[in-house]
Amino acid sequence: MQLRYSFRLYPEPGQQRALARAFGCARVVFNDTVQARRDAHAANKPYPTSKILSASLITVAKQRPERSFLGEVSAVVLQQALRDADTAYANFFASRKGERKGPKMGEPSFRSRKDARQAIRFTANARWKITKGGRLSLPKIGGLKVKWSRSLPCVPSSVTVIKDAAGRYFASFVIDTDPAADAAAVPAPDGDSCVGIDLGLNHFAVLANGTKIDSPRFLRRAEKKLKKAQRELSRKQKGSKNREKARLRVARAHAQVADARKEFGHQLSTRIIRENQTVVVENLAVSALARTRLAKSVHDAGWSQFVDMLEYKAKRYGRVFVQIGRFTPTTRTCSACGHVDGPKPLHVREWTCPACNTLHDRDVNAAKNVKAAGQGGSSLRNVGKTKPPAPSEARHDVKKQEATESRTRSRAA
What residues act catalytically? Predict the structure, then answer.
């Protein structure tokens, strides 16, 4: 299993210029690769192979005056940019053929020096190393100061240097880990504990045991600061230095929100994984919910990021991770007797089961049903295979039926 360990970098001014030069050279090779393949497609010719592109766009290009600057950076950086273009085209064709899951991917586009994220990658043959003083030594860049927050468990296979929109530099190391060793290092919870998690907006997560975790609402809390920074940015003249300074302030404000949300997700997911052997969540249609009037709150919650953390940590530490179908009626089903009641509007936070007269908290009941569905509970075993009608469709059917009955009565009269 491969994991990434990310650490903050603090390059000196000369090293920042060397990194900017490396970012630019990698971008040029990537764009030249995309252009070469577009030209081949327009001429109805087969796409040139990576070997041909490597010779023409890197080896031969260095000897031309207009591309001589490519020789100022490590050749590994250029080769990895070429591989990135190959991967992008492979994903594009796999998506067109239906072999790749997820939304359809478009054709690779050109990279810009104004992109929010710049990155270069060094593999083992680039001869990068971590010095005894704790610096990251990169070819033709030098020793970069690293803020080590933890030690690396083994020798990394590659390192990616990233510059984000806020102007911060990071080193991302790829580490090969053994899930069996990681699972043995973390003690298993007592018994065969299982937890069902219902994700929401009023509370970020509600567990089947009744625990409610408040939603931090990081974006909502920082909205005033973000609005002020964005307003100042809009007043600056385009292309000026003051506008660049204002842009950095906006980017840093957004980075603080994203970092706080990520840290919250890591802490909560780690605690849940350590305390439970089986974790069950609902497969939410986040992309669809993000197109509703609750879009800002849905994005602020960060459900997808949290679920991804649960999934990879469960795999790493030997836990069982289960996702149930999104159409399973966890809210409408009584967790005590299994009776499926009618739809529940969002303002209904408690309801009483008409079959067994049990008073349910909406979110706790849903979390219990999520847990039962993940364990193969009898009450929800065969539920959720078909999509129930949406409330708007149900109202439309009732109105249509009422109109039909009205016409029938008028004709009879």
Answer: 198, 282, 363
